[in-house]
């Protein structure tokens, strides 16, 4: 069995067996150059990523901070199209750990909701994160995803109610715990409430919980990995890719390997 055959749940079962949290790096498709995605995904695989999040660039990414906004703008200026990302993903997914898309609702509507979910499934995508789709309004998308074998991944924020958290037990992939009230971005410190938020989520549901937002260093990853089932790193990686120029794949590989090292038991 190759890693591409693993389900999201299978990944978490394996990492749990290894006594560590799963590492989930994020990159924006079409950034820094239109066709960089295959090389970057290959670097993240080499570095020991367990799941990879690919961001679909969008012009108005309301949950994103400056690093990811800039990456999305650059990707759109490069002429990145959803259809091309899907085609690239299809090529990549067979030799990669499971891939999850991060997209806002607008590009999905534009493509057609059903058509998009089907195309994503055919490209080998295992999960979808849609930050501006409220869980309460996601029934149709949820069912279309289930029908295509894709997990819709719900978000939990520090402000989420216990009732909201309890309603997520039907999710089939993992729960995305947002570490803070704010936008994505590189940060100095991890919010002091993260540990108790993970504990609160686990009181209500059995799903694996991955934490993202602001995890920027191996030290942060180690701390989050001690309480959560997965660690998601976006802006810090994208900033390194930005700064590295032609050396982006090597720089990405080295950084993600250092995060992975920090998660080893
Ligand atoms: O960039 P950060 O702070 O490391 O956070 C993860 C994040 O990049 C990724 O999961 C993500 C990118 N855009 C988002 C929008 C909403 C929720 C999550 C995301």
Write the layout of secondary structure elements.
Blueprint: H1 8-17, E1 22-28, H2 37-46, E2 52-55, H3 66-77, H4 82-93, E3 99-102, H5 105-111, H6 113-122, E4 125-129, H7 139-147, E5 151-152, E6 155-156, H8 162-166, E7 175-178, H9 194-204, E8 209-212, H10 218-225, E9 230-233, H11 235-244, H12 248-263
Parallel strand pairs: 1-2, 1-9, 2-3, 3-4, 4-5, 6-7, 7-8, 8-9
The structure holds indole-3-glycerol phosphate (IGP).
Give a description of the structure.
This protein is α/β, with parallel strands linked by helices and about 260 residues long. It contains twelve helices and nine strands. It has one domain: Alpha-Beta Barrel (TIM Barrel), CATH 3.20.20.70. It has a nine-stranded parallel beta sheet with strand order 5-4-3-2-1-9-8-7-6. Helix content is about 45%, strand content about 15%.
């Amino acid at each position: 069995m190759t890693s591409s055959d693993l389900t999201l749940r299978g990944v978490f079962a394996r990492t749990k067996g290894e006594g560590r949290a799963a590492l989930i790096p994020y990159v924006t498709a079409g950034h820094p150059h239109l066709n960089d995605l295959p090389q970057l995904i290959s670097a993240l695989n080499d570095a020991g990523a367990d799941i990879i999040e690919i961001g679909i660039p969008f012009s108005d990414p309301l949950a994103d901070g400056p690093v990811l906004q800039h990456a999305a703008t650059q990707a759109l200026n490069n002429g990145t199209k959803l259809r091309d990302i899907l085609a690239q993903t299809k090529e990549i997914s067979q030799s990669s750990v499971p891939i999850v898309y991060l997209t806002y609702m607008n590009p999905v509507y534009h493509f057609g909701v059903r058509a998009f979910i089907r195309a994503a499934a055919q490209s080998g995508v295992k999960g979808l994160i849609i930050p501006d789709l409220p869980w309460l309004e996601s029934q149709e998308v949820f069912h279309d995803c289930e029908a295509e074998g894709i997990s819709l991944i719900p978000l939990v924020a520090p402000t989420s109610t216990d009732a909201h958290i309890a309603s997520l037990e039907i999710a089939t992939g993992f729960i995305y715990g947002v570490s803070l009230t704010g936008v994505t971005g590189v940060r100095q410190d991890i919010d002091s409430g993260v540990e108790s938020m993970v504990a609160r989520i686990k009181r209500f549901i059995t799903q694996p919980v991955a934490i993202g937002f602001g995890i920027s260093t191996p030290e942060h990853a180690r701390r989050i990995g001690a309480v959560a089932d997965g660690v998601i790193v976006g802006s810090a990686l994208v900033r390194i890719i930005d700064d590295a120029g032609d050396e982006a794949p090597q720089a990405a590989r080295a950084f993600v390997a250092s995060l992975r090292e920090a998660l080893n038991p």
